[in-house]
Amino acid sequence: MPPTHVPLALGSVLLLLLQLLSPTSAFFPNIWSLLAAPGSVTHQDLTEAAALNVTLQLFLERPPPGRPPLRLEDFLGRTLLADDLFASYFGPGSPSRRFRAALGEVSRANAAQDFLPTSRNDPDLHFDAERLGQGRTRLVGALREALVAAQAGDHALARQRLGAALHALQQDFYSHSNWVELGQQRPHPHLLWPRQELGNLAQVGDPTCADCEELSCPGNLLGFTRLTSGYFGTYPSKPPGKCSHGGRFDQSSSQPPRGGINKDSTAPGFSPHHTLHLQAAELALLASIQAFGLLRSRLGDRGFSRLLDITPASSLSFVLDTTGSMGEEINAAKIQARHIVEQRRGGPMEPGHYVLVPFHDPGFGPVFTTSDPDSFWQQLNEIQAVGGGDEPEMSLSALELALLHTPPLSDIFVFTDASPKDAFLTRRVGALAQERRCRVTFLVTEDPSRAQRRVRREVLSPLRFEPYEVVALASGGEVIFTKDQHIRDVATVVGDSTADLVALPLEPPVLVPGRPLVFTVDGLLRRVTVRIHGEVRSFWIRNPAGVSQGQEEGQGSLGHTRRFGQFWMVSMNDPPQTGTWEIQVTAEGNTRVRVQAQTALDFLFHFGIPVEDGPHPGLYPVTQPVAGLRTQLLIEVTGLHPGGRREGPLPHFSHVVLRGVPGGAELGRVPLEPSGAPERGLLVASLPPPLLSTAGPFALELLGRDGGGRDLRRAAPQPCRVAPVLLELSGPAGFLAPGSKAPLSLRIASFSGPRDLDLRTWVNASFALTSNLSRVRLEHNESAWGRLWLEVPESAALDSVVTVTVAAMGREARPVPPTHAFLRLLVLGPDPQDQLAVPAHSSGPVLTKASPTLPPSPLVTRGRAGGGLAGNPWWGTVAGVLLLLGLASW
Ligand SMILES: *[C@@H]1O[C@H](CO)[C@@H](O)[C@H](O)[C@H]1NC(C)=O
Ligand SMILES: *[C@@H]1O[C@H](CO)[C@@H](O)[C@H](O)[C@H]1NC(C)=O
Ligand SMILES: *[C@@H]1O[C@H](CO)[C@@H](O)[C@H](O)[C@H]1NC(C)=O
Ligand SMILES: *[C@@H]1O[C@H](CO)[C@@H](O)[C@H](O)[C@H]1NC(C)=O
């Protein structure tokens, strides 16, 4: 079939997509892969291209308040980039990192379907083995879960389920079935609609494929008009006359009829129908756009924006101690919140999400979350400091609750004057903060005059705040000690953080007596602030021209200095001079220095383990590098086009430096290889093997040059750690039904010598959780499998999310830090009716309906979103979207 019937616009999108792929990138799951299939379109490419297409659509339909509307012509015929879209819509320099991180979550969940033990071999999840009806049921189920999770406000889970759905939709249907070979040039019209027939399916006895002994099998499908798909491996076994998936890892393809039909890549060795790869990818892109469009229409524009974090603004998340002594702190939090809300109201930097968790001995919570600044303000205002409590408080439990409800890449502020009673949670909370990439800052007011107000059972240990230090360090935040009279001023750090400041790397990273601290300012930085905190005797700051300024308060030659007790803040004048700056501090005890600045040029990072065997080689996404396993580091630079312009030389990052934390010793320096077109900002490096035996945390620092050849440095906000073992926790393929017992599977493997481990499990709901693996001894290269059973009570709240946590802790004398795995699962009623169901006449009269009224609140309730009958405004949008897609013939 000639490939020329492809709609023009789409063809060019794909062409551009292809241009972005480097010759070595290939195969399906994600950017890194085998050398074998240059020019293949990956799941990640498709997911991003589709999300950007729908985001642009949204931007075009909702002109930005106070800014010129976007014009489609400006974007046609070029690859869509998140930075460009953000600069055009929210204004130049608007950071796109949250949006890109959200897309990354979807893409990684998508890729994980090919690697996780519970999903990689399940034919239903991949449209293999002619299980097309089952595949569709799973696909629609995953999309429905994504929808419900988003409506319930759990966007992490929603993105995961969306990734799973897109995986099935993209690769699996269009690449594994013969839809393309049947001459179809549009996505399957009924794939997303569970009530409609899939149509003409090949029956049990129908032979579908002829024998093919070549790698490439263009004509092996028997002249035949029914829909079928290939069998893979040995389960289920291939009946006589049926097609195989094909490719070198598919055992079934060596049995007659030999060969296969997959279109996963452009490589004949993997894909007997490689010549149809691009056609399959085109349909997969259209189908993905449709799926995003469907979610947008169900969630409304605000809900959809939250699902993909289509905002430059961060969220505001407070954990507040409400014991009697906390009046001043609570007031400080209120003042900050009010200030931020008022200053940013209606603008692009207005926080889109607010979280509040109170705690008061002995309780904590409940968590309050909203996207409405007024109700946040009201809730905060109702908080009063009442009664006395014991000194230690359940502060880490409260923080854990906040972490479970705060979007990734956010700052969380804990206001307290007490140490934690639940210090046993320290590691788990630190791991969760790392997984969520949230920075935690503790504002601790220690006031001796308070001794009478707090009932104290024992003499306080000077180390009692240590758990806060551990969590702050793990998350990239800090612990700021202050006093009552200063808390209001010190709390202005809250405003700084929500203004999206990045921390600049310091050399050395911690204060060494007699040595200056050095940092580099580049031309892309604004609002540089220096914070010094401790028993400072004196300090000075010197710019590259040799101008210096001391600790005097007020305006100096370089900037403005404010002092609140032991906390100093120096705001440098804009624009700061570029080059090398120095800070010299003379101080007692533990003094910290932190330099922050505003910039759109920043980066996200991920880790992946190259998996070369199996049907879909690629990078298996992991949250941490694993000791002894070759691990790749993926860097995604954001803000390369802060003004949305593409002219001129781009900044370029060439190396990543790995440093021990907190000492700063250089552990390695690895070159970064661009993956794909430079404007996309994707870089890859192999972590050096010696690093993978490091026990301590390490920090990532990116080195490069700007368009003018001047030095650029950026530091990751949080340190990373090498996990001593690989810990994989995966759930059932679908949701949790009340009254059921759900099996979870756990795999633990050591690649760095023998390990003796204890395993602990938790669930953040009162569900029973049992495991057949509580202790394990692993030899080098050995794995153990465990089964967990989660009992979901009849009374479990529908549409609620539970988090299961597993920790593996070393039993050796020299304890290795625990490794954690987190799994989110959705409790859902068994009734899938109406969720995504479509009335039979969907392209009928509803088409003419006016566009829907957008729900005032992003949290569309289930009752409101349900229905699915003609006259429901939802259908108006779907029909509208379909029209836009040129698919009105449905
Ligand atoms: C978005 O995708 C549709 C095809 O579904 C295409 O017609 C349109 O041109 C795309 N938009 C852009 C800006 O590429
Ligand atoms: C573990 O597996 C790796 C890779 O297969 C191999 O190189 C190594 O020798 C193995 N080590 C041991 C102790 O078995
Ligand atoms: C736990 O149960 C699973 C599934 O029944 C089994 O595969 C695994 O080997 C068991 N693990 C242990 C340690 O008994
Ligand atoms: C458990 O964690 C999830 C987030 O993953 C959250 O949505 C849910 O509300 C939590 N449940 C409870 C009871 O806190």
From TrEMBL:
Domain Hemicentin-1-like von Willebrand factor A: 315-483
Encoding gene per record: VWA7
Taxonomic lineage from the root: Eukaryota, Metazoa, Chordata, Craniata, Vertebrata
Record-annotated VWA7 beta-sandwich domain positions: 602-720
Organism encoding this protein: Myotis lucifugus (Little brown bat)
Gene3D superfamilies linked to this entry: von Willebrand factor, type A domain
Any Pfam family: GBD_Hemicentin
Localization, UniProt: Secreted
InterPro entries referenced in this protein's UniProt entry, alphabetically: GBD_Hemicentin/VWA7, HMCN1-like_VWA, Ig_VWA7, VWA7, VWA7_4, VWA7_N, vWFA_dom_sf
Keywords, ordered alphabetically: Glycoprotein, Secreted, Signal
Top-level taxon of the source organism: Eukaryota
Residue ranges occupied by any Hemicentin/VWA7 galactose-binding domain in the UniProt entry: 509-599
Gene Ontology cellular-component annotations: extracellular region
VWA7 Ig-like domain span: 726-828
Domain VWA7 N-terminal: 82-304
Signal peptide start-end: 1-26
Region (Disordered): 242-273
SUPFAM superfamilies named in the record: vWA-like
The protein's name: von Willebrand factor A domain containing 7
